[in-house]
Design a protein that fits this description.
438 residues; alpha+beta; Nucleotidyltransferase, domain 5; Actin, Chain A, domain 4; 3 domains; six-stranded mixed sheet; 13 helices; 23 strands; 29% strand; binds adenosine-5'-triphosphate; binds magnesium ion
Amino acid sequence: MAGILAIGMFLSQGIEDIGARANLIGVDFGSSFMKATLVRPGKKFAIVENTAAKRKTEAMVTLGKENRLFGADSLLASGKYPLTTFAELQRTFGEQFDAELVQKMKEHRFITNEIAADERGVVAWKVTSAGSGGEESGEELLHSEEVVAMLLQYVKMLAEKQAEASVRECVITVPSWFTYDQRLMIRDAAEQLAGLSVLQLVHENTAAAVLFGIDKVDKEAQNHTVLFYNMGGMDTEVAIVRYSHLNVSEKSKKLTPYIEILAEAHERDLGSKDLDLVLFDILADKFNALKEREGKPDLRTNPRATKRLLKEAAKIKEELSANKQASVKVPELLDYVTLQLTLERAEMEEKASELFARVTRPIEAALAKAGLSMDEIHQVELLGGGIRTPKVTELLEKALKVKELGVHLNGDEAMCFGSAFIGSNSTMNFKVAAVMLT
Ligand SMILES: Nc1ncnc2c1ncn2[C@@H]1O[C@H](COP(=O)(O)OP(=O)(O)OP(=O)(O)O)[C@@H](O)[C@H]1O
Ligand SMILES: [Mg+2]
């Protein structure tokens, strides 16, 4: 990352407003969830709650018969409207339609919608209208930006409701592997379509690292090196970050935190949702093997049953994080046949061995880029929902040989709070102490 960026430090009492009274949001645009933090002059940072009073919203949208559904409502409706429910938005955002990753996602049923290439060759979502009320039925292509803008608009609306005022500016997290074009496209989605002005795009781990530097690192620490490991829904990203403190003022002895991102690495197709797919396959195979299904087509050929079983797989995965076995029950999954069984965590772990074999790969890549060995890392901080899978932490513990795997930040919310923090300085609307970031 070029140059030094002065970013702000907010004090726990709140932020002093010295400029225009503009509110802003830090948005963590994840592949599974969208989370946002609201910054208002003179008030503490606050998470943006959705209409169901939840602190995170599933990053998906359903075009229902009469309205747009978001979050849990969209997830609930995905079985009924599989072809107009759009998920996997971040992983497909700005990707070329014929890219191997996209084709693999289709093949692996991450995408059950009809997708096509738009005029740029980028993934677009096909929507077929039924043609009710006399108008022609037809097919429409929704661009990647249009669908993501719907989500951003929703988040803006929630933030404005909470702020009881307009919210115009934002900082958005992006994966470290986003290309220049993908960055331009997300800016367009926010600025041209969702009515938000983008102050900055930041990497997820950078946002978390800034937050960490504010109050989790000793105020006089020099060369304190922290490895951030973030397993989200669709990827795993690692950043190695060094914290020092510099005296940049001739007048005062006050030290300013100095944060260097030494290296970043990622494993693009290693995320918690990949585990959902492993579980989905186990369950689909068991369903297909039922006596009642003899001679019947594979469940995977039915979009509605596929969506329902994917949803169950995600639920079962979380249960298997807490317990060694889980009860599966999907009533009348297909043709009035119910799926009911008990699944062992060990069976999932065995079937997911290819995924687990890659858990430590981005760590090795980041260490190599930074020219460091694990002995030179003082702390490891875990982020993202994927680290709740016991096998993941077990593998990390074995490989990292550090005293503790830290969870000092709220691994779900550090990214949106960090980006809100970065944004609070970029506008000059808030009086904030400096942190230097390179
Ligand atoms: N208890 C749990 N056990 C296993 N997985 C879990 C658990 N809780 C949440 N997850 C998984 O974590 C994932 C979401 O994590 P997170 O919120 O970090 O993703 P994201 O930020 O949206 O994705 P990304 O960073 O990849 O874009 C989901 O796939 C979810 O199923
Ligand atoms: Mg994430």
